[in-house]
Amino acid sequence: MVRMRSDWRGLARGRAHPRSRWRRLWDWLLTFAILGLLILLAARLDRTETLNLAGRATVNDGDSITLGTERIRLRGIDAPEFDQTCREDGGIYPCGRRARDALVARIGGRPVSCAGWERDKYDRLLATCTAGGSDLNRSQVEAGWAVAYGDYGAEQDAARRKGAGLWAGSFDRPRDWRDMHGGMAESEHAAPGKILNWLRQMFRFS
């Protein structure tokens, strides 16, 4: 009887070890699941908090401005980088500077209002901006000085048919130009991202 009881205890101890390993694995999985839910919740809460800004704008290039200390990227469009060149009538012209000049003229020294809730990997606010009641994002695409980048597809088609702005000649898409030049133009404005922005990029929250 004593031997049987001893064997049973040994068997119980032998089974306890794998059960504890599975328990530890389960605890880790549960911890990661809770962490993921907290990250998702934080991202969703952050998305609902729209940031509204207004003031005199400094125009950096055809799709980015600065309001006070806040750097803003016009959402849904992509304009040539400031140093980018394009081709027209067999020659080269500074289309990046033209795109910036077009945005400066569109603002016309008036106060700019912007609203957005997300940020890009350079910690710039992705926003829709207006000046004098005019949608700057839409206007840049309509005038042909920016291409659609997720939005404004119909406006781009109309600008292309009219041969407006960039469409009067040939050009590299701004994204392709950045790739060919090692992303130099974008990285000049880079800043350390916030933890939540990094997580949003890593997990590609939409």
What's the gist of this structure?
Helix content is 47%, strand content 22%.
Q: What does it look like?
A:
By secondary structure, the chain is an alpha+beta fold. The protein has two domains: 1-49; 51-203, OB fold (Dihydrolipoamide Acetyltransferase, E2P). 47% of the residues lie in helices and 22% in strands. It has seven helices and eleven strands. It has helices at 2-48, 95-107, 136-142, 153-162, 174-180, 184-187, 195-203, and strands at 51-55, 57-61, 64-67, 70-74, 77-78, 86-88, 91-93, 112-119, 125-131, 134-135, 147-148. Strands 1, 2, 3, 4, 8, 9 and 10 form a seven-stranded mixed β-sheet that branches. Strands 5-11 form a two-stranded antiparallel ribbon. A hairpin with a 2-residue loop joins strand 2 (57-61) and strand 3. The longest helix is centred in the first third of the chain and has 47 residues, at 2-48. The protein starts with a helix and ends with a helix. 28% of the residues are buried.
Overall mean pLDDT: 82
How does the major sheet shape up? 7 strands, mixed
- Element-level helix/strand string: HEEEEEEEHEEEHEHHHH
Q: Give the beta-strand count.
A: 11
Uncertain parts = 187-206
Would you give the CATH topology of the largest domain?
A: OB fold (Dihydrolipoamide Acetyltransferase, E2P)
**Count of domain modules:** 2
Query: What overall geometry do the principal axes of the alpha carbons give?
Result: elongated
CATH hierarchy, class of the largest domain = Mainly Beta
**What is the beta-strand fraction?**
15-25%
Q: Helical residue percent?
A: 40-55%
Instruction: Return Rg in Å.
Output: 27 Å
First and last CA, distance: 66 Å
CATH level-two architecture of the largest domain: Beta Barrel
Strand pairing plus helix content: what structural class? alpha+beta
